[in-house]
Amino acid sequence: MSRMFINRDKMHHRRAIPPSPSCKGTDVLPRLTKQHARNPSMRWTASGAPFYDLRSTFMQLGIIGLGRMGGNIARRLMLDGHTTVVYDRDEASRSALANEGSTAVADLAELVSALEKPRAVWVMLPAGAPTEDTIQTLSQLLEADDVIIDGGNTFYKDDIRRAQELSEKGLHYVDVGTSGGVWGLERGYCMMIGGDVAAVERLDPLFASLAPGLGSIE
Question: Where does the 6-phosphogluconate dehydrogenase NADP-binding domain lie (predicted)?
Fold first, then answer.
C-alpha cells in the first residue's frame, strides 16, 4: 500500500491563478472559462492545467464507533457539508449524533443499506478483536468497489493482510492512522493514509475536511 500525508492548505486551498503570460494569445483562457462555467468548482494552475477544489465536493460516509474520536470525526465532516450514517453499540451515542444531523442506525446491516454506492465506511474502534470482527462482518455485507477505512491503531501487518483479503472480494481497504484527540473537532486531525491510489483519491474530499487548516494548530 502506498502512503501519503495530507496537508489541507497545500493541497486543497490553492486559489484560482490565471494562466501564465506564456499562454497569452492562445485559446487556453477561453477554454478554461467555458469549463469553469460548466463546473464552478474548477480552478487552474499557472500552467493552465485545471484542478478541482476538493472541499466543494460533499460525500456520504458511514462511521462505526462514536467515542471521542469517531463522534467528533462525524461532527467535523458534517460541519463541512458532508453527510454521515453512524453506528455505535451505545444508544445514547447514536442518539446524540442523530440530534446533530447524522442518520443513526441500529446495526451494521442497516448502515450498509443506508449508504449510497460506492460506499465508504470508517471503522473507529479499538485495535484487535473489535476492529477485526467488525471488518469481517462488513466484508460480508459490502459489495465490490466499496471502501473500508480503519482509523484505529491496527498493527501494520494486520493492515497488509486485510488489504489482501478484501481485495480478493473486490473491496478497497484504506489504513488511516489518525491523531488529534478531543481537539480534532476544532483543530483537525493528522492522518497517515495508506491504500491504493484510486480509493484514496475518491476519499480525498473527506480527508480535506478532516485535516488541520492553516493557523488551526498553536
Answer: 61-211
- 137: CB partners within 8 A, 6+ apart: 108
How far apart are the C-alpha atoms of 39 and 24, rounded to whole Å? 23
pLDDT tens column, 30-57: 333 333 344 444 443 344 444 445 555 8
Q: Which element (helix H / strand E) includes 28?
A: helix 28-38
pLDDT band per the 50, 70, 90 thresholds, residue 26:
very low
Grid cell for residue 103: 442518520
Cis amide linkage into residue 205, ω under 30° from 0: no
Widest pairwise Cα distance in the chain: 63
Structural domain range at position 174: 60-210
Find the CATH number of the domain harbouring 91.
3.40.50.720
Report d(CA 205, CA 202) in Å as an integer: 8
Q: Quick one: pLDDT at residue 38?
A: 41
The answer to whether residue 17 is domain-embedded is no
